[in-house]
Each structure stands twice: as C-alpha cells, then as structure tokens.
Amino acid sequence: MRKYILFFSIFLNILFILFYIVYKINSPTNELGILRQNICVKKFATNDTLFVIPKGITVSDVSEQGLAAIGQFENNRFSIVITTDEDLIDYEINKDSLNLFGNYYSSEIIDNKKNK
After folding, report:
1. pLDDT tens across 27-49, in order?
2. Verdict on whether the full-model pTM lies above 0.90
3. Are the CB atoms for 26 and 65 separated by under 8 Å?
C-alpha cells in the first residue's frame, strides 16, 4: 500500500511541476517600465481624444506569451495600476448597465514634432 501512495505522490508532483512550467511560459512577465512617449487615448473607432497619458508613467507589461498569445491583436499591452486611499470604483452597480462591448479604447502615440 505504501508503494502505491509513494507512486501517486510522485505522479502528482510531476503533474504539478508540468502545470507550473506551462503557466510560467504562457503568463505575462509583468515587467515594470516607464513610458517613453505621451500616449493619446481615444474611444475605439472614433477620433475623440479622451485623455493623454504623459511619458514617465510607470506601467506593467501584460502581453501574453507562448500559446496564450495566439490570436492577440496587439502585442504591446500594458496596464497602469492606480492605488489610492479613496473609494474610486463602485462595484455595487447593476451589471446590465455596463456597456461591456463598448468600452474598448485605442491609443495613439503623439508625435512631438507635430505639436511644436
């Protein structure tokens, strides 16, 4: 009986290690960096500028890698994490009122030569 428990334990450890390796290969690096240029954020398929993200902001790389990156339409994805002591987001909102497919935004790098 002990022999079966030992083999089962070894099998589970090998399985865990394989899943961990696949997860690490496919997950984002979450590497921190700083924006080099200003980024103009617009609502998708419109020309209306919502806001400009200034250069120098710290961002995290969230681009998928490996098999998870198949079908990804933009390879340079990043996230901006905002921390505050204030309550900024209302999570008690009715989910039907969220426009799930209308909240996509595109960004455009502002050419400093154009602005001058």
Report:
1. 888 788 888 888 888 877 778 88
2. no
3. yes
